[in-house]
Amino acid sequence: MTEENKPEKVMAVPEKDKKTFQRGLQLFVIYFSIYVLFTIAGTVRKEILMIRMFGMNLGIVGGMTIILGAIVIAIYYNWYAGKMEAEQ
């Protein structure tokens, strides 16, 4: 084989990177599932999101909860990835 036709070297992915990716994927699936359920509830059963809670309807409260949940997930993932990086 000539230099041009040689396959590139494949680098192994470190175990900590695999764990970090898997945790991120798990968190994404959890968030996505909750978001899909909320969206389906709003589409199919609109009266559920009209229930009053804390002086607002459940659609507003649920939407804000989903946004806050995304922020909490992002903070947790940042902490987890930093911990995995520090372990080396």
Textual characterization of the structure:
This protein is mainly α and 88 residues long. The protein is built from two helices and two strands; from the N terminus they run αββα. The protein has helices at 15-44, 58-87; strands at 52-53, 56-57. The protein has a two-stranded antiparallel sheet with strand order 1-2. Helix 1 (15-44) packs antiparallel against helix 2. The protein is elongated, with a radius of gyration of 21 Å. The mean pLDDT is 87.
CA-based gyration radius? 21 Å
Major sheet:
2 strands, antiparallel
Q: How many alpha or pi helices? A: 2
Which structural class should the secondary elements be placed in?
mainly alpha
In percent, how helical is the residue content?
Answer: 55-70%
How would you classify the quaternary structure? Answer: single chain
Instruction: Give the topology string: H per helix, E per strand.
Output: HEEH
**Unreliably modeled segments:** none
Arithmetic mean pLDDT: 87
| Percent of residues in β-strands | under 5%
Strand count:
2
Large-scale geometry: elongated
Nutshell version of this structure?
A hairpin with a 2-residue loop joins strand 1 (52-53) and strand 2 (56-57). With 88 residues, the protein is mostly helical. It has helices at 15-44, 58-87; strands at 52-53, 56-57.
